[in-house]
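ESCALATION

Customer reports they have been waiting on this structure for their group meeting. Please prioritize. Original submission:
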Amino acid sequence: MRNFNDRRLLFDTNVLLDALVEGRQQSQEAWEVLRRCNGGGDMGFVTSGSLKDVYYVLSRGGREAAAREAIGLLMDLLVIAPVGVEECELSLHAGEPDFEDGLVRAVAEFNDVDFILTRDARAFRRSRVRAVTCAEYLEIFAE
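Update from on-call: job pushed to the front of the queue and completed.
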């Protein structure tokens, strides 16, 4: 049985970009939640698809070295959750409006995640896993 303080969090792509791109909505809150995954008691998860999308956004404009550095940082902080046939099947047949959001939902459900961190909670309203913004998460678990 897991300890209550050992929360499992799945980071949606938009939250990762918030943390890594200064000036984005909830940038400070996203970075704070990531910090908690670095020995702060929370265990963070990410999909390889989210890493791919973050790399794509950050590497535009000739910033490939910075994008690789950011991906390395995320890989040091977060567990890369597997996406396989079961996750794809759930996403395909779950009735989610977006296949990628369905994959995030499936990964969260198959990995016993406690919260999906996102700025688009509506995308996960059918999920058994609660979707919250980073600001909401920090408010729930204020130190």
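Sent to customer with the following note: The first strand starts at residue 8 and ends at 11.
Escalation resolved.
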